[in-house]
Amino acid sequence: MEDVVIPLPFYLTFGALLFVIGVIGVLTRRNVVIVLMSIELILNAVNLTLISFSHYLDDLRGQVFALFVIAVAASEAAVGLALVIALYRGKHTFNLDDVNLLKW
């Protein structure tokens, strides 16, 4: 069987595309759950870039750093979902425009 090697620019282009989609999702959407999913997409794009460069340079430091990013993303998701549940219990909405917690 022939080994197919995907060149590095394809991985970097795909990572950049995922990053841009995530940034657009964070900036344009008002639903808290969609914003959290967009942040996760940004972190996964960074992980893809780190692992791609790590494989290309034959160095494990990028993969180790990606594991730390995965741990941070998991904790961010847990804290974010806890905040979403607390927000929904208090305001009965997921829309960020309807929530103004600093108003008396």
TrEMBL record:
InterPro entries: NADH_UbQ_OxRdtase_chain4L/K, NUOK/Mnh_C1-like. The chain crosses the membrane at residues 6-27, 34-53, 65-88. Its main location: membrane. Keywords: Cell membrane, Membrane, NAD, Oxidoreductase, Quinone, Translocase, Transmembrane, Transmembrane helix, Transport, Ubiquinone. It is found in: Cell membrane; Membrane. One of its GO terms (biological process) is ATP synthesis coupled electron transport. It is a multi-pass membrane protein. It is an enzyme of class 7 (translocase). GO terms for molecular function: NADH dehydrogenase (quinone) (non-electrogenic) activity; quinone binding. One of its GO terms (cellular component) is plasma membrane. It catalyses: a quinone + NADH + 5 H(+)(in) = a quinol + NAD(+) + 4 H(+)(out). Its EC number is 7.1.1.-. NDH-1 is composed of 14 different subunits. Subunits NuoA, H, J, K, L, M, N constitute the membrane sector of the complex. NDH-1 shuttles electrons from NADH, via FMN and iron-sulfur (Fe-S) centers, to quinones in the respiratory chain. The immediate electron acceptor for the enzyme in this species is believed to be ubiquinone. Couples the redox reaction to proton translocation (for every two electrons transferred, four hydrogen ions are translocated across the cytoplasmic membrane), and thus conserves the redox energy in a proton gradient. Belongs to the complex I subunit 4L family. HAMAP family: NDH1_NuoK. This is NADH-quinone oxidoreductase subunit K. The gene is nuoK.
